[in-house]
Specification:
alpha+beta, 5 strands, globular
């Protein structure tokens, strides 16, 4: 299991989530389910541990539901792939 970040920029703000790399990539391809989240939290900066505010989530995604937002981040955003994973591909 490899943990990585998935991120998207929407409504002028950054949104990041911590995900399981394999599960997130499977979900992005439409094959997996939404159990890819490692931490049930949406961040504005995951490295610094800053949470995204409910108002920012509502503005950018129309909802504050973590799983709905996480799904949109993985589907529409970028899942950061580790060097080891790239090499293995």
């Amino acid at each position: 299991m490899t943990q990585t970040t998935a991120r998207i920029k929407k409504a002028g703000k950054n949104f990041e989530i911590m995900v399981d790399l394999e599960k997130a990539l499977a979900f992005k391809k439409g094959a997996g389910n939404s159990d890819f989240l490692e931490i049930d939290k949406i961040f504005s900066d995951a490295k610094k541990g800053f949470s995204a505010s409910d108002s920012d989530l509502k503005k950018a995604f129309g909802t504050t539901d973590i799983y709905e937002v996480a799904g949109k981040i993985v589907k529409e955003g970028e899942v950061l792939v580790t060097q080891e994973h790239r090499s293995a591909e």
